[in-house]
Structures are given as C-alpha cells and as structure tokens.
Sequence to fold (477 residues):
Amino acid sequence: MIDCDIHVQITHQEEILKFIDAPERDWYRNQAYMLGLPAYPWSNPSNWFRGDLAVDESGMPGGNAQVVATEALDGQGADIGILTADDALSVGLMENTYRAAALARAHNDWQSEDWFPHDDRFRGSIIVPSQDTVAAVAEIERCAGDRRFVQVLLAGGSERPYGDPRYLPILEAAAANGLAVAIHSGMEGMGLAHQPTGAGAPTFYIEWHTIGSACSIMAHLMSLLTHGTFRRVPDLKVLLIEGGIAWLPGMLWRNDTNWRGLRDDTPWLDEPPSETMKRHIRFATQPLEHTDGNDELLWQMLAAVGAPDILCYSSDYPHWDGDEPKWLANRLPEAWRQGVMHDNAVAFYGSRLDLPVAR
Amino acid sequence: MSEWHDIAAEADVAPGAPAIARIEGREIGVMRDPRTNELVAIRNRCPHSGAKLCLGTVEQRIEGEPGGHYHLVDRTVVVCPWHGWEFDATTGVCPEDANFRVAVYPVRVENGRVLVQA
Fold:
C-alpha cells in the first residue's frame, strides 16, 4: 500500500527554527499563531486529530518521525508514506513573502534531515512560497536533488487558481525536475487566500469541511484544464488531495458540454477537458464520500470519468476524518484495489518512489 | 443465555482509562462516564469503520436550536476516537443514523468488581 497523505505536525517550533538563520528566529517565535503562519477563523469543534494516537508533550500526535513510522507505516501497512505538511501548507499565503521563503526552506530541510533518515519508506513534499514565484522556483531547484522529495505541495487556498500564468514557472520547475505537483485542500480564507466559497466565508467548520475545501480543489482543477496548462507543460502531473471526488463526474460532464459550445474563448483546448484530466490528474481518495448504501452508484459514476486509474489511496493520518486503509480497500470493487491502494501511485510518481535511499 | 463476566476491578476504570475484555470472541469495554460516574459497557468496535470505540470518550450530549442555541441534555454518548460519531450509551444507537448501532451490555459492580452481562 502507498499512502499519499501523511501529515507531519510541528509540535516543537524550535525543531523548525534551527534551520532558520539566528537573527530571524525571534520574529517567528513572536507571532500570534504558529511561526507566523495564518490561521483559520474557526476550529474543529472536537479535535483535529484521531483520538487513538500517541501524543507528545505538546498534546499533539504526528510530530515524531519514529512514532509516525510506527503508527502510519507499520500500523497501516504502508510500503511508502508520502509526507505532506500540515499547518505549513499555508506558507504560500503569508503576507510576509521573505519570512515565507525562509520558513519554507526550513520546513523542507526539516523533512530532509529529521524525517527521511528515520525510515526509507518516507517520501516528502517540497513546500514553496507560492506568493513569490522566483523564490518558489529557487526552492524547488534547491530541493529537487534530494530524490526523497516526490512532489511540490501547494495549498487549496490561493490568490488565484493555479492555472493562472503567474504560477506557470512553479509548475514548469516541478515537471522539469520529475516532481509531481500536489494541491491539498485547506487554508482557504487564510492570509492572502480568498474565501473558500463563491458566496463568502462560511460560519461553521462543518460548512468548510463539506464544501469549502472542495471548492478550492474544483477551482484549481478547472483552472489548470482551461488554461491549457498541460499543453504548455506536457510532463506535468497533478495530485488533488482531500477535496472529495463524488462531485467529479458532474463537473467534468458539465465542463465537456461547455467546451463544445464555448471553445472560441479557449481554442487551445483541442480535446474534451475530461480526457486531459485522465492523463494528467489523480485524486487522493480520502475522504471518499459515504454513500448511505449507494456505493455501486458511486463506482459507476467514477468509472465513467476514468476510475480506478485516477484514484490513489490516502489516509490523511493523523487527522480525525481519515480513511483507514483496510476499511477503504474493502469498500472498493475488488478489481480496483491493487491499482488504488498501490499501482496508481507507482505509475504517477515514477522513479522517485523506488530509489534506494541511503540512511 | 448470556452470563455475567468479571471484567476488572472497579477502581481501575476511570475516565480515559477503560477496561477491555474479550468475551466469546467479542471485545467489550467498560468506560466511566465522567459526568455521572456511571459505568458503560459497550462493544469495542465502531460500526462505522472499525475503530476501537473505547479509545474514544464518554460525553454529555449537546443539542440545540437554530439561532445559535446550545444545550447539554440528559443523555450520555460514547464518541468514536476516529470520526467523532456518537452512540447512545444506553441503547448503542447512533442518534444521527439508527442504521448504525453498537452493542451495549448490562453492567454492575459487586464487591468492588465490574461485572458485565454478555
């Protein structure tokens, strides 16, 4: 099994700050929220995390490499676990561009030096100051030589959808270095990001969790397809994480229909957008929607837009809404399991998954 | 016919410290309700996705009305540690979806020992 979404937690800020130049450290220490990262206006009403995990003295799980290897890799039976940032996903939304760039560098170094050496099964994500394209590209180039990084990770919350040409250099740098680009829902409404719906800010966590996080993923998908991004960057591969998937068939059908009638505005689209999607975009499974007994309908709908090939398993460890791998695999049609739980991720990430890694 | 089984010393069952026993192939946990100090005996498997339910919490249920009104009601629920689904501590039924139900068992204390009928 390959788990495409394991969130590492910053439970001790000094572990990050040791990778930041000494004169800068106090700025991060003195910010209202963690290291100057922007924060949500609401919190999960019960707990952001699964209640059955080991916590360290900070009270949080997921901050210790050895514990994460035990719980998320051994415990879940993962051959490979791809580390995705957590709060630090929002680094590209910090108002202070320079502090964002330094924090992104530190977080990437932290993964390289404090996480990867613990376990050969760990792979990682390069976070970037996406508000400064030049700095973001430089960070990708700096990190790409460490082949344990498999992707560049962007937040769902953004200043503009990622098909916008301002982001093109980031996407090009990723593809040129054999890295995927992952877009993880979340951080909508934070810092520089727009609010998570087209109708304004939600009031409650449950509103954001149901649609807010999906809206940003839908917007990025639509933007990447419509700008012709994959014609400009033919090697680009994109993984969309935690935005849900049951909505996908309806959106693609509507988009393909619109493309037939509206193509004069985007004449570079030389095939139905859903066909482009099938070649370049993958979806992490969690949270695979509950269907109240209608799973067969869901499989039929998803099969119509490319499943099972477009699906890659993700647990979302250590969050409260994770999908446990055995439970998820048992839900899937039997013929889908090997692909979704393993093979699709191997094909998507390529050689960065199977390189021997020196401890 | 179900029988009474000696699970644990009563003093060993505290909020956050359940007693777990395996009875005829089923894992059953006894949890302490921090509000009433009563004991709850419940199967240690969430009917949703299989989490060990007794690693969750026993809580007083919150209900409310539109307009932002919240009330604590006289009802105890066991809250799953994974996804936060609630199960009535008396009936085992999920208040939000009666299709999801976990077994609950009679429990009593005798001579300082916790007995569960299962």
Observations:
- Chain B has one domain: 4-117.
- Chain B has no helices and ten strands.
- Chain B touches chain A at residues 49-52, 55-57, 79-84 (CB under 8 Å).
- The domain at 4-117 of chain B is CATH 2.102.10.10 (Rieske Iron-sulfur Protein).
